[in-house]
Amino acid sequence: MNWSLIRKPVFGIMLWNWRSEKVRYDVVIIGGAIVGSSIAYYLREEGFSGSIALVERDPQFAHAATTLSCASIRQQFSIPENIRLSQFTLKLFRRLTEEFGADADIGFREGGYLILAGDNGLPILKANHQTQMAEGADIVLEDAEALVRRFPWLSAEGITAGAYGRTGEGWFDAHAMLMLFRKALRENKIDFITAGVTGIERQGDCVTGVNLDNGERLDAGIVVNAAGPNAGKVSAMAGLVLPVEPRKRSVFIFEAREKYDDMPLLVDPSGIYVRPEGSVYITGGAEPGEGDSPADPGDFEPDWPLFEEVIWPVLATRIPAFEAIKPTRAWAGHYDYNTLDQNAVIGPHPQVGNFLFANGFSGHGLQQAPAVGKALAELIVHGVYRTVDCSAFGYERVAEGRAFRELNVI
Ligand SMILES: Cc1cc2nc3c(=O)[nH]c(=O)nc-3n(C[C@H](O)[C@H](O)[C@H](O)COP(=O)(O)OP(=O)(O)OC[C@H]3O[C@@H](n4cnc5c(N)ncnc54)[C@H](O)[C@@H]3O)c2cc1C
Q: Could you tell me which residue ranges the FAD dependent oxidoreductase domain spans (predicted)?
């Protein structure tokens, strides 16, 4: 049944009783931010002609990880599969106007990442660097002396070496990227449904539909979970366990007298990062990671003591000029944190084959979303991954409790 037809008002009133009317979609995507939008976009690009519903409870995306992210992209991962996902997106960024039209612009600034290590972190930094080089990334590994020559504003105290991405890494405007995809969807016969999914119906090894908080029910051929930090709860609605939970991450903005135009996104061995953002800087990354606890889904209050007590002292040590800075603003968002291995879960459930995951990106999902959208669209349309093989991210490892760990979680 065609959604646009049954929604048509007759004599000024809605003809249908939404509670009892069954509306069927070939694909229902839960979550309309970057991952859900990308899946819908690439489904059409792959020639999928069936009906698609993109269900989103918060069309302003006020609390989506997508719009609260730091919007950075890197090649510096520890596993090849993550590098390949980001490389797909990088290629897209470089041909954005071809894909989305002449005025497509996400403000991509290829400023690089600089990941620093002391003696302890050096073996991992070197191993990661080898993996990245094998994937064709443009990363140089330099000792402390060379780094200070390259970046005179840097203090090498406690630093043995650093890996610097000369090209292929940087930052962009997350909201602009999301809007590009959403705009393209409007021309692509996707039904945007503003509602929260409150239940998923299942018959044996098949999901059959979703229930919405407005009382409606959508029959579904395939259900895709693109619910970001809420993905664990959405999976539970289908009776499926997914170890993904929200983890609060604060981001702080500060002003500094000195402007370092050559500054990459710098990651200190402590995990604290800093990068330029126009005329100011953004910083964060002091949360404990594994020992951390799930966020209250309604808590978006930035953790200012973290800045004062932990982040600022590290910044002042690493970049002495940052001893005198002026913090101005902060925000907090929720990571879509996979407690098993901080890596994405992509693809169908092994038993409930028409329930697909696109979850658990643990802080690097924005840059991976285009690749994941393309991969899942290929899987749905052609039955196999063609461009980027995502089998290693499959749910099977979750069922077996087998970690597929990403070491570079920033
Ligand atoms: C502070 C911070 C910094 C980050 N920095 C980076 C970075 O530099 N680079 C990077 O690549 N990634 C980064 N990330 C991670 C990245 O933002 C996420 O991995 C990515 O945005 C996930 O996209 P998503 O569409 O899956 O989730 P989201 O953007 O959270 O979208 C999920 C959507 O699903 C909707 N939804 C949830 N449940 C339901 C329901 N029951 N019914 C209907 N709708 C529902 C939500 O309203 C939401 O809009 C960062 C994240 C944070 C929080």
A: 26-379
Angle at 405 between CA 400 and CA 410, to 5 degrees: 140
Question: Following DSSP, what letter does each residue of 297-350 receive, concatenated?
Answer: TT-----HHHIIIIIHHHHHHHSGGGGSEEEEEEEEEEEEEETTTSS-EEEE-S
pTM over 0.85: yes
- Choosing from 41, 55, 70, 292 the residue with most ligand 1 atoms within 8 A of its CB, the one to mutate for a pocket test is 70
d(Cα 171, Cα 70) in Å, to the nearest integer?
8
156-208 confidence digits (pLDDT tens): 999 999 999 999 999 999 999 999 999 999 988 999 999 999 999 999 999 99
- Token pair for residue 361? 């990106």
Question: Environment class of residue 14 by beta-carbon count within 10 Å: exposed (0-12), middle (13-18) or buried (19+)?
Answer: exposed
The encoded tokens of residue 154 equal 């840097």
Q: Show Cβ contacts of residue 88 under 8 Å, excluding neighbours closer than 6 positions.
A: 370, 371, 374, 387, 388
pLDDT tens-digit readout, 59-89: 999 999 999 999 999 999 999 999 999 999 9
